[in-house]
Amino acid sequence: MNDFDSFFHKITQNLPYEYQKQMAELPVEDCLIRVPTGCGKTAGVIGAWLWRINVDRDRTPTRLVYCLPMRVLVEQTRDLAKKWARESETGTQVYTLMGGEIDEDWEFDPDKPTIFVGTQDMLLSRALNRGYAMSRYRWPVHFGLLNNDCLWVCDEVQLMGNGLGTTAQLQAFRQKWSTYGPAATWWMSATADREWLKTVDYQDAPLIELIELRTADQDGQLEGVYKAAKAIERLDTLDRTSIESLHRPATLTLVVCNTVKRARELYSSFFVPTAVRRGKKAAGDGKSAPEMVLIHSRFRPPDRQRSVRRLLAADKTLRSEKAEGDDQDAAWLEQVRANGLVAVSTQVVEAGVDLSAETLITEIAPWPSIVQRLGRCNRGGKQNGSARVRWVPLPDKQAAPYEPEQLKEARAKLEQLSDGSIANLERFCPFPGHQLTHVIRQHDVHGLFSTEPDLAGGFTDISAYVRDAERDTSVYVFWREKPGADEPEPHADEICPVPVGELKNFLDKQKVQASEWNGETEKWERRRMGDVRPGMTLLLDHKDGGYSD
Hints:
- The protein is built from 19 helices and 19 strands.
- The chain has helices at residues 3-12, 18-25, 41-55, 71-88, 120-127, 139-145, 162-177, 215-218, 223-226, 240-246, 260-268, 301-318, 327-339, 367-374, 404-414, 422-425, 442-447, 463-466, 500-510, and strands at residues 31-34, 63-68, 93-98, 101-102, 114-119, 150-154, 183-189, 209-212, 231-234, 252-256, 291-295, 341-345, 359-363, 388-392, 474-480, 496-499, 514-518, 523-527, 537-541.
- Helix 1 crosses helix 4.
- The longest helix is centred in the N-terminal third of the chain and has 18 residues, at 71-88.
- Mean pLDDT is 87; it is low at 274-280.
């Protein structure tokens, strides 16, 4: 083994693939990494950066900024990064930046190798000098540290919306204005194309390095993943009956809905009325009912973590791998071994989550999302012959949060497929790009250097540059009993992310107000429906409700 092979094996216990070696050998410059799901992109980029820190410190950016579009991806990536950083013996620290969980100490050691793992909301808002969920007096510090001497890794870029264009624009500005220390951006996805990155100021996109699976990988170590078979058929009705007819005991069935509302309703259909003991599933046709889990992004952290932990543990158990969990999970996992698991989820599992369902049922979605979801079925290529996919058409009126045209395009391709292996999907490349609705320009960034309130007492709204303007972005809500003027700040475990529009509707319907802490007056101030903006952290009285675990 060469030096990188030995280093990579030391931190990951695996030998690197050929494309991972390429990432370690190339200069730290902008590139697009287009590699299918389940092929080790995360290990490749973090391993390559740690290797460079180890052998070429002077020419390697001090900070690795790992930007993810969804919260559920952050925790899994952070845990892996901590493990690999520890094994690398480079002294690298790993910090988390996502709503409800922000490590504050990182800014005090800017000269030490550091990995930040966070959501695009938290990271891009800081890179734009308007950091969400933080004091405005510290905005410039984060702005400086996240635009200089750093390597941005933007993962699952097909989900970033306008944030993808913002990352390209910011990289163009760094190149034009120059930075302290090297600064580059790596964009990653199984479905991206270099043309996606071309913006008004970032014209180098068609020329940047493209890293893909090499023939040696496709015909070698990754052949089983690359050619893993998944029989595809249409399913006209998605309900409890159709799921139970497809589910097999002692296997994982993954059901992906496009909206939180439909996921909640489908999950609830498996349970009897609340008059019966809570948590007991309704009786079926005599078969033992599968265990159930619900996954979406609108839980408080402990509730979300419990569900994700159970899902990942069940998946490992069903794959005959060792699953970590508490005593309560151990008893539950015995039921999973016998009866299997039905996991009802939203898009949060379609990217970056290491799952290998035997049966995947998905609502029709844009083609890049379908490709990502297919990556959660027969992920390791060990379920050939039994792995299957069912896709569910939707009427135009249920297309949201997508456009009907996107679903029609995906449907046309699915109707041509009988097998969803990675090798079989490649005939549909390249993938269509995302139409940016808001692109940040140089004068916009110059204006963001001012961190003083405007005449109306507010600040420039950057939310359209962080995510799609037409999508709801999050506010962060927590509940207290009889909140008073001396209420302490929220703990991370209390905070629940809520779409702006959903919270506004709630405040209007319930005829209640929220409260926000004003750092200048050091008081909690009332906020009405019209005051709510993305990035706010708001306090509600627990008697007003609005949440169920």
